[in-house]
Amino acid sequence: MQATNSLPEGPEMSTFLRRMKFLFQPLRYVEDIAKAYGDNFTISSRKGTNIVYFSHPQALQQIFTADSSHLGGGRGNQGLRFLLGDNSLILLDGDRHQRQRQLLTPPFHGDRMRAYGETICEITQQTTKDWKMGKPFNIRGSMQEITLRVILRAVFGLDEGQSFQELRRLLTSLLDAISSPLMSSAMFFPFVQKDFGAWSPWGRIVRLRQQVDELIYALIQERRAESNQNRQDILSLMMSATDEDGQSMSDKELHDELMTLLVAGHETTASALTWALYWIDYVPEVRDKLLSELDSLGNNPDLSLIAKLPYLTAVCQETLRIYPIAMSAFFRVVQYPIEIMGYKLPVGTAIIPSIYLAHHREEVYPQPNQFKPERFLERQFSPYEYLPFGGGNRRCIGMAFAQYEMKLVLATILSQFQVSLVNKRPVRPVRRGLTVAAPSGMQMVANPLTQRAGTPVLV
Question: Residue 331's domain spans which residues?
Answer without folding.
Answer: 15-448
